[in-house]
Amino acid sequence: MSYKYLVTNGCSFVAGDGYTSRSFKPPHRFSTLLSEKLKCKDINLAQTGASNDRIVRTTFDWIENNKDKCKDTLLILGLTDVSRMELYLNEVNLYVDSHLSSLGDNQPGQMIADTEKEHITSSQKGMGKVVKWLMFYLEYFYSDRNRVEKFKRELILLLSYLKEHKVDVIIFNSLGLPQDDEDNAKYSKKITDYLKENTNFLSFKYNYYGKPYDNETIDSWNVYLSRNRGVRDWIAPDGHPGKESHKWLSTYIYDYIKRGFKNA
């Protein structure tokens, strides 16, 4: 199976964060290494701090604007934390992502935009207003369960759109879905089971990195990283995947493709 374009989307794990200079990202990130193996163009749409909202939106926009490339495209999506929420700021005409899981200490989580334009959270007064609103939203309107259910609906619609345009897609969890209580774990399992049954969902065999005593299947790259913490250059100083992790993932996905999109 040959492709002309490898399109990847996700958060910092897919963008290749982990080192101080942005110029270090492309040489070691898995999408660049995989595109070299597949001999196709690397198009990385990922954004540091991105939400699943952004992943769905920008993936849709790329397909909508590149319909002539779809049949020659392999799309890989690395899903992120469901508590991240995309907002549109009229003030600067930009989308920003808020990290509700880090809300507190008078901080509105991280408000990350695709460009560095100043906006309401740039000032203490503006930031205070945003924090107050987000705290109210969290208390009365937010739930992990609702976010997971909403995201499942969006994924079903996105997968139908991708199928219509004959785009091959691989999906995996970069950070994993919420498992902090029984209710959240139940609804997270529903979306993972749906993806396993209806698309090419990448699971990781723990013994794949040379640990034959354990044949556990792991559904999160982040969890797989933690299991191999002692490997040199496996985890970057800031906790993101290191160079060896990206090298490993590029090989793992390449083998997955060669097996006809079948997990090890």
What does this structure look like?
It contains nine helices and ten strands. By secondary structure, the chain is α/β, with parallel strands linked by helices. The chain folds into two domains: 5-83 and 144-258, Rossmann fold (3-Layer(aba) Sandwich), CATH 3.40.50.1110; 85-140, no CATH class. Strands 2-1-3-7-8 form a five-stranded parallel β-sheet, sandwiched between helices. It has a three-stranded antiparallel β-sheet with strand order 4-5-6. It has a two-stranded antiparallel sheet with strand order 9-10. The chain starts with a strand and ends in a 6-residue tail after the last helix.
For this entry, give a set of tags:
2 domains; five-stranded parallel sheet; Rossmann fold; 16% strand
Helix and strand arrangement:
Blueprint: E1 5-9, H1 12-15, H2 25-28, H3 30-38, E2 41-44, H4 52-65, E3 73-79, E4 84-89, E5 94-99, E6 111-113, H5 124-140, H6 144-164, E7 168-173, H7 182-198, E8 200-201, E9 204-205, E10 217-218, H8 221-227, H9 243-258
Parallel strand pairs: 1-2, 1-3, 3-7, 7-8
Antiparallel strand pairs: 4-5, 5-6, 9-10
